[in-house]
Amino acid sequence: MSDTSQKKDSTDWDSHKLDPKYLPRIKSAKDLEEAMLLKDVKDHVGKEVNYNGWVYNLRSSGKIMFLQFRDGSGDIQAILEKSAVSEDIWEKAQELTIESSLQIKGKVKEDDRSPFGYEMELSDLTIVQIAPEYPISNKEHGPEFLMDNRHLWLRSSKQRAVLKIRDEIFFSMTSFLREDGFTRIDTPIFQPVSCEDTSELFEVDYFGEKTYLTQSGQLYCEAAEMALGKTYDFGPVFRAEKSKTRKHLIEFWMMDAELPFTDLDGLMDFEERMSKRIISDCLKNCAFELKVLERDVEKLQKYVEQDFIRMTHKETIELLNEKYDLGLSYLDDIGAPEEAKLAELFDMPIFIYDWPTEIKAFYMTRTGEQKDAKAVEGDMSRVRAVDLVAAEGFGEIMGGSERIFDYNEMLEIIKAHGYPFKDYEWYLDLRKYGSIPHSGFGIGLERFVRFVSGIHHIRETIPFPRMLNRMYP
Ligand code: 4AD
Ligand code: MG
Question: How far, in Å, is the centroid of ligand 1 from the Cα of 397?
């Protein structure tokens, strides 16, 4: 972890100065000609155009130069032939290094052999800045090195592909919600109330008063739901979870949705519909990125076409014990090892519902006769909660439930949890004035990105991950 304390600065600033040859060659963006975007390259075929961007890779034979060029919206191979340009232009090009920034000018043509489908015959270039030797190369780098250089690593093709997929998922999800009649509201980040496990709260000093960083905007979404109907929020949430796994972040992005007059079946139907829409949008709009990531798209296609599996927690435990002799109890959580086993048994996402009350959050509807019974043969107090577990071992991607809507029942539960009445009074009011049966869920954006892109570690699904032992860059 980097040291952020305010020590007296002992930096030898001069030693960090760049050689003037690495300083900008132009004064401002006005020094460049108008440029097009590579995302529209198909409209530029046969024309001479400019693109602004970076040299992603380059090789030269002494007579011909090949530049892999990126402008952020797309990539192209640009070819410079010595015999086709003036000596001056050829000399300029010899200065280029990996990650140098420049404007290229040339004629675009289609080329089936190029991975991008197009090529440019360079006729001129304007150097913006020549980059010193770039720390990330094609050779294998360790994950720590890459994470220390996350600000540069983002430029590599796989990282760009993941972030494009992330953007597509965000857009697809919010479009779907809008089309389905949801209103987006934004919930506060400072919250005096705990929504999930109190042991995972980040405490903050709020002008001398104790408050917390949000774990989920759910409770506030429920309030907005009574005003606006179907409601969702989308923002960063924080979990002081000492988990060092491939699917845990300390700071991640969550979308919480609330569905009025909806029960658990309706909730599962909705989550399934939304998941299928997002995956199908990614298949449609991120075909190139999924190819870069070597994702098995046939599997993704199947998740769109076939029904998700639905099982109770009890059935899941029994199945795992029967198939793998795991000796799990009816009170056990379904963690990463169990999720991996489920992926061996099923090749579709699975809804696991009706969870033991003890291992879930306070606000969920209780079910069954023996609400307070001890765990005997699985007939114990359960809540109408549902986790959506992705296929292929990617694990839980959504968590939701029916919400208790009986005022006195909620009051008893808040009391039993030892939460202060004054902090939850407003939440109880929602059950006092026009209470309704309702359900909702939260989706971890990075978990979903990991699933769709098939990325091994969650740290690559967010531009700048915050993890147990990482806050830099
Ligand atoms: O299951 P969780 O804890 O549910 C809630 O917070 C509810 N209040 C949501 C709601 O009903 N509105 O979190 C929801 C989702 C999980 O299914 C998972 O995808 C993701 O958030 N998640 C994490 N993602 C990355 N790192 C972590 N540490 C995560 N913890 C949960
Ligand atoms: Mg959960």
Answer: 8
Pairing of strands 350-356, 309-312: parallel
Is 439's pLDDT higher than 70?
A: yes
Classify the phi-psi angles of 392: left when phi > 0, otherwise alpha if psi is within -120 to 50, otherwise beta. Answer: left
Is 254 touching ligand 1 by the criterion CB < 6 Å? yes
Which residue has a Cα nearest atom 22 of ligand 1? 444
Q: Is 216 in the pocket of ligand 1 (CB under 6 A)?
A: yes
Q: What angle separates helix 264-285 from helix 445-453, to the nearest 10 degrees?
A: 50
Give distance in angstroms: CA of 398 to centre of ligand 2: 7
Q: Quickly count: other Cβ atoms within 10 Å of residue 139's Cβ.
A: 5
46, containing H or E segment:
none
How far apart, in Å, are the Cα atoms of 419 and each of 192, 411, 423? Answer: 11, 10, 8
416-454 burial, b if ≥16 CB within 10 A, otherwise e? eeebeeeebeebeebbeeebebbbbbbbbbbbbbbbbbb
Please list, in sequence order, all residues whose beta carbon lies within 8 angstroms of the beta carbon of residue 208, skipping any fewer than 6 positions away. none
| CB atoms near residue 80 (< 10 Å) | 27
pLDDT tens digits for 105-138?
999 999 988 888 999 999 999 999 999 999 998 8
Using a 10 angstrom Cβ sphere, with 0-12 exposed, 13-18 middle and 19 or more buried, the burial of residue 415 is exposed
Enumerate residues with CB within 5 Å of ligand 2 (an ion): 399
**CA angle in degrees (0–180, nearest 5) for 63-68-69:** 120
What's the alpha-carbon Rg for the chain, to the nearest Å?
Answer: 27
**pTM (2 decimals)?**
0.95
Count of helix runs (H) and strand runs (E) in the chain: 13, 17
The pLDDT of residue 116: 84
CA proximity to 115, closest of 50, 52, 152, 161: 161
Tell me: pLDDT of 82 over 60: yes
Residue located nearest, by CA, to atom 16 of ligand 1:
398
Ligand nearest to the CA of 252: 1
C-alpha 348/C-alpha 43 separation (Å) is 40
Q: Give the domains, in start order, of the chain with CATH numbers.
A: 18-129 (2.40.50.140), 152-461 (3.30.930.10)
| Nearest ligand for residue 248 CA | 1
DSSP secondary structure string for all residues of 124-151: EEEEEE-----S--SS---HHHHHHTHH
